[in-house]
Structures are given as structure tokens and as C-alpha cells.
Amino acid sequence: MKRKQPPVEEVVSSDSDDSDIAESDKCIMCKLFYPPCTDTKLSFINIVKWGCCDLCQGWVHLTFCTQIKVLRRGDSFLCPKCTSED
């Protein structure tokens, strides 16, 4: 099954809010498009990796909202919500 592409936001701003972004484009764990940044030294640039859950098809911020840092092509992935339901 071919996965859909991760959500893309063209305008990146540190002071923007997530109110005008569709719920389907937000992380299913933190409910935000931009993950919460805990390191203020790196707040000017953040490369955010997303993972698509094989079960619910929801998108999740890798590293920020899961213990997983990288997904390779062909890797299976279950979000924390679907993993806890097993």
C-alpha cells in the first residue's frame, strides 16, 4: 500500500499558531503541526521528521512524540496510540 505524503507547510514561522491548519495535517499525539521546541538554541531551524502509522494512517512527529528517530523505506510503524491498544 502506498503511503500518502507527510503534511507540508509552506510558510514557517516561529510565532504562528496551529489554528488555521487542518486537524488531519497535525500530529495525532501532540495535536500540533509544529512540535513543541524544548531547545531555544535551535528554535530558528528544526528539521521535523514525520511517521505515518500503518494502522490508523495518522501522522506523528518522530523524535518529539515517539521514541523512534528514523523510519526507512519499507519499515513498519505503529504510533504510540495504536501500540498501546495491542
TrEMBL record:
InterPro entries cross-referenced by the UniProt entry: Znf_FYVE_PHD (IPR011011), Znf_RING/FYVE/PHD (IPR013083)
SUPFAM superfamilies in the record: FYVE/PHD zinc finger
Region annotation Disordered: where it falls in the sequence: 1-21
Gene3D superfamilies the record matches: Zinc/RING finger domain, C3HC4 (zinc finger)
The name this protein goes by in its record: Uncharacterized protein
Species per Swiss-Prot/TrEMBL record: Dreissena polymorpha (Zebra mussel)
